[in-house]
Amino acid sequence: MVDAQMIFEDLKTQASTRQAKSLTILNKVLKAQCDAGDRNFSIAEIARMSVDLGGPSASTIRNKTGQVFRQLIEAWATQAGSAMKVPVNQLAKANKVPKDNELLTLIGDPALRAVFGQIIAERNRFRNELNTLKANSNLMIDIRPVRQLDQAAQHGSLQILPALNFNEMEMEALKAAVSDNFFKHRDWSISPAGQVKDEDGREVFKHGFVSAIKKTLKHV
């Protein structure tokens, strides 16, 4: 069996002061990796942790003068039963994100699998609703009575309506069109049904005209 610690001590005695320091940091990282049972001893992975502690980087390990570093990594990888390559199972995880149905197949308990299947279904529903809201970011809330909303939903006629964006000038124009002063000035009258008549009783605006504008002003 390979004794990586013995190889480290031998390499350290032959190294310069600066290189010995780097070897010590690298050895600490490798020993921790081995003790944790992690089989990833690739240069990229080991160098990432080494740099965090002030040790040699991936380029330093790979260049010509980095032979001692590579020898130490290889020793610890062999002791851990691995190699200086990313394990196949970790490569698969890095390159592929499992689909929902693939994740479900990993759950052995049928009841638990069904629960997670429902969670995924609810997640998908909420995501679709969120996408709908994003596509219709400018909305008007329908405040019709609940009974009317229920009936509309049952008949498939419930819709999300875009908001009415009136500017100040347009708002003032609508207010003026149904103001008491305007009708007095014209000598017009308003029926209870919102119909507008002139001084001779002739219809100027149809039933619902005044009430429709007032409702619009109220909800904008």
Structure in words:
This protein is mainly α and 220 residues long. The chain folds into 4 domains: 4-92; 100-135; 138-162, no CATH class; 168-219, no CATH class. Helices cover 61% and strands 5% of the residues. It contains 12 helices and 5 strands. It has helices at residues 4-14, 17-35, 43-52, 58-62, 67-79, 88-95, 100-105, 110-135, 146-154, 168-177, 180-186, 209-219, and strands at residues 139-140, 161-162, 189-190, 196-197, 203-205. The strands form 2 sheets. Strands 3-4-5 form a 3-stranded antiparallel beta sheet, with no helix packed on it. The radius of gyration is 38 Å and the shape is elongated. InterPro entries: GmtX-like.
Tally the helices: what do you get?
12
Class from helix and strand fractions: mainly alpha
How does the major sheet shape up? 3 strands, antiparallel
Rounded mean pLDDT is: 77
**Binned strand content:** 5-15%
Order of helices and strands: HHHHHHHHEHEHHEEEH
In short:
The longest helix is centred in the middle third of the chain and has 26 residues, at 110-135. The chain has 12 helices and 5 strands.
